[in-house]
Structure formats: C-alpha cells, structure tokens
Amino acid sequence: MNFSERAYNQIAGQKTQRIEAIADGIFAVALTLLVLDIKVPVSETIKTEKQLFDSFCELTPKFLTYFLSFMTLGIFWTGHSAQFTYIEKSDRHLNWLSLFFLLFVSILPFTTAFLSEHIHFKMAIALYWLNIFLLGLALYIHWAYAMKHGFAQFKDEAEKQNVDKAVRNRIMIAQTLYAIAALLCLVNNYLSIFMTIAIQLNYALAIFSRWQKKS
Q: Model pTM?
C-alpha cells in the first residue's frame, strides 16, 4: 500500500454524523416501504358490505407482518442510535460495518412482503428470521469493532464495562429469543409470529424490566 492509499484510509469515514444521517434516512424509507405492501381492495370486484369486509379481512396477514416489521425496524433503529450515543469517533471500517447493517435494514421490506404473501410456509418464516439474525449480527460486530478500537467514549471504566455488557447482552439475548420464536414455526407459523411480536413488545416497552423492578 502506497502513501496515498494509507492517507485515504486514515481520513475516510471520520464523521459519525454522516453515518447517523444516512442511517436515519434508510430507516425512514424502509419504514415507509413496509406499508406499500398493503393494497386497498379493488373496488370493481366489491358490490356489498360483506364483500368489502371479507376483502379487508384478507389483508390480515399483511397488517400482521407490517406491525411485526415496524416493530423490528424500530428496535434496531433504537439499538443503532444507542450505540452512537457513545461512539464519538469512526474510521472507514466502522463506516462500512454500519453500511452493511443498513443493507440488511433496506432488505427487510422485501422479506416482510415475502412473509405476508407466503405466511403459511415455513421457508417464509426462516427467511424473515435470517434477516433479523443478520441485523443482530451486524449490529453486534459494529459495536465490538467500535469498542476494540476505542471509538466509544465513557465517563469512567465502570460506565464502560456496564454499557458494553448491556449492549452485548441485549443483542445476544434478543437473538436467542428470536431463534426460539422462529423454531416455533415447526408447531404453527402464527404462533411463531405472535411470539416474535411479544418479544419485540417487551424490548420496545421494557415490560419485563419494569416487572423486575417492581418484584
């Protein structure tokens, strides 16, 4: 590697604000694309109230997967932004780790549409779970790299250890629970989906954490 290449590698990807900005934009687009999979029933084929009601009921899988994926994106956006609460420096490698994470974000509308169209097939559940797994893996690697190279800043060593443990544990526990939920498709696909939603609601609303504090 010559001097000019080393110099470029040293100056590229320094601004964390740039990756935060593109992350917010991609999450916003992905969240919007989710709802586009829900199509209004064709009016020409509907003549009665019952037909309209039946057509609306047929959209249930799409509404279910829309809610599922909206929660998924919300949780991972929160996780990514939480990391940047502490990450104050960056380099080109951390930049690309963020971009690969966003790659899996941008493909979620497709896996959501695939699941809504083939909700009775286990392959659709497996593909959706794979998307979630890759999101979690990318987010974990992103944090591990930032910690290894000292890009995250903390008040003291105690805060560093507590935050690092909390971030890593949250990702690993969540991914374990998602894997269990995915395996439930061997029993029933809807059971697998509702279990995933229950996990997401817990992480979004911190239900279990509040219960632990009260007990």
A: 0.86
